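Suppose you are handed a protein chain with no further information: no name, no annotation, nothing but its sequence. What can you learn? This example shows the usual starting point.
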Amino acid sequence: MSGRRERTKVANRAALLDAARDAFGQLGYDAVAVRDIVRRTDLASGTFYNYFADKDAIFRAVVDATGAEARRRVRAARTRAGGLGEFVEAGYRAYFEFIVEDPATFAFMRRNLGGAGLEEVLPLGAAELAEDLAALPDLPALDLDYCAHAMVAVGLELGARMAEREPPDVDGATRFATDLFVAGVTRR
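A reasonable first move is to predict its three-dimensional structure. Written in structure tokens, the prediction is:
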């Protein structure tokens, strides 16, 4: 009995998170009410409060899950890279592919970039990037904090532009971002 109950809890929570991501992505944080989230599921309205205290709590959960998945994919891609060029290319490609693979998640990120919680997630990605840059052999001396934050900012803005193109050009965006940073870092 507890096995089925646990599976139901996991499924209900996942349904609420998916519905919240879609609602926040479509309407934006300020325009979403808990009822907008619940209406996008087959769950009873009171079920929401078994999993989340309020709109802020579910928004934070969506932010955390989205940020964790993007960082996981990008970091995994970077760890397989051999040098600076491969490192930069692999990271950007993984992020741009993440955007293209899941437009609803990207809509959530883009629409709510200034929302509560995203300002905490973005620095986590920049901090991980700075750590990974520091571990690269033969990296020229540079301010890793500035470099990591610039790379994250370019990824966000270029990713948004790429997603607006029809069809999205992952290869072109990856090539541009890679050339920009590799040339800028090695030119020093």
